[in-house]
Amino acid sequence: MKREGLLALLKKTFGYSSFRPLQEEIITDVLSGLDVFALLPTGGGKSLCFQLPALAQEGLTLVVSPLIALMKDQVEGLQASGVSATFLNSTLSAEESKARFRGLYRGEYRLLYIAPERLMLPGFPERLQELKVRQVAIDEAHCISEWGHDFRPEYRQLAELRPHLPGVPFIALTATATPRVQEDIVRLLALQEPRCYTASFNRPNLTYRILPKDKPTEQVVRWVQEHPDECGIVYCHSRKATESVAEKLRAGGVSALPYHAGLEPAVRDKTQERFLKDKVRVVCATVAFGMGVHKPNVRFVLHFDLPKSIEGYYQETGRAGRDGLPGECVLFFSSADAVKQRAFIEEKPDPEEQRIAREQLQQMIHYAESSECRRETLLAYFGETHLNIPCGGCDNCLEPRERFDGTVAAQKFLSCIFRLRQASSFGVGMNHLVEVLTGAVTEKIRKWGHDKLSTYGIGKEHSRNEWQSIGRELIRLGLCRQTVERMSTLELSPEGMAWLKSRQPLTLTRPMRSVPRLNRPKIEGDIVCDEVLFGQLRTLRRELADERNVPPYIIFADVTLRHMAARQPATEEEFAELPGVGERKLRDFSGPFIEAIARWRVQRARQS
Ligand code: ADP
Ligand code: ZN
Known about the structure:
The chain is an alpha/beta fold and 608 residues long. It is built from 26 helices and 17 strands. It folds into four domains: 196 residues, P-loop containing nucleotide triphosphate hydrolases (Rossmann fold), CATH 3.40.50.300; 193 residues, Rossmann fold; 107 residues, Winged helix-like DNA-binding domain superfamily/Winged helix DNA-binding domain (Arc Repressor Mutant, subunit A, Orthogonal Bundle), CATH 1.10.10.10; 77 residues, HRDC domain (DNA polymerase, domain 1, Orthogonal Bundle).
């Protein structure tokens, strides 16, 4: 099919008038029978890469998906757009499965979502040719790798399908892939000379912020209260914290529920469903709440605790703003959390595992404390550079931290390390060093005679916290370092030594301010519209969704609703122009929404 044909199909079925980056290339390759490996960030529009080819050609598209909830969601979404799709998994009765099979043999469906274990049942692969399978899409393809975070052994057998489907292209899609996972996907799925596509991992519609963690529960409650009507996730480390934060939110008038692996599966499913259907506004969760969350209108992701790695942090924050509208990511950080986590790591039995965990934590701490662009630090982790800075969407770019002449402070700090090393045969940790600088009177200082040093008490102009922050910045600048053994001690680096001798001026950054900025930046993806009308349209959407027992976003995405509230279409023709309105949704839903807009106009005219 030619470009015009694909675009027409895109508008007719899904209501979009252009492709997202790489979608068109991927779709064209799949349609010409090539294997494809697609690495697109969350919200990048992966589904469309196999859904459009499914409609552009005859026959059936198989979609392998790891989660039952996701299958149902995608099938409902397709059906709402008038696409005939179905799924097969263990939740169906024998009766229902049979009925769906009959439909498959009659060629009634364009897409079949299927769990890998169902697909590989004895006898099933042999029957695929009869079903006229023309394309196999493997969603969440990282599940095939033990190195990924959601390993599914059943994914390993998928390559055995190939002999049964000669000439049928395989398309593997994921949002997670370190090189090792990527290699596993290509090899273990036996992709043949695949075309590989990698989109930028930048999420321009997300804003990243760090706030100093002080009274975290109150901070979270206040933050959520200041963002009324928005849905979000609060990630916590412990099950107990998910429960207590949810409780405090409820006490503060916010509908919130906890989610963690210790809850009954039925309770967890119910919570997830309530969240998807906008019936509960906030879920306080451990990382167990993850892959199943394809809710497009998650507006914020808060981290109550320090994540264990940048990769995990990126995945978790990535659940905000799937729909392309602005999303806020806030991490509450205290160095006490870092210390706590280090202690956890020391309890791990395997030294190699410890080493990796320490390194990952160090990167995370660096991210949290750095005064550089957050987005730049995140993307550098994935090997991406050349970003426009200031990025316009992180705290450090929006409100650059105050800088000061830190020459004297750095001299005091570094020479104190030097003197301590000279005086004792052992190194000391950050706490002790800061106590020496500030002239504290402690047992250890007296015992070791550190009160006799020339650097004892020379740093009384800064508080202990300030010295800690100065110390951490000097570590980041590479002038000194913290050893990674059990009791980490400070030492000068060769650069630090050289700097002490040269005494060049040095600029340092003041610690973060604890007052968050509340006004929102103008961030990519924002659609300005009348908020009152938007609220009314949202209520209508929820009624329509409840009648059909589907999540509201199946009817229309928030993006469509905001465009609707901005453009206020009065006719079907105008309504059809909205992004996300294809033929089927125009027919099914334009009536009630156009009426609601008309009613609102009258209402507003009366008021003015
Ligand atoms: P992913 O699976 O990569 O996270 P999805 O397939 O769920 O992303 O798509 C994210 C959102 O983007 C969905 O709401 C989808 O309808 C929308 N979308 C996909 N392709 C386009 C497009 N070409 N134009 C506008 N919106 C799109
Ligand atoms: Zn930035």
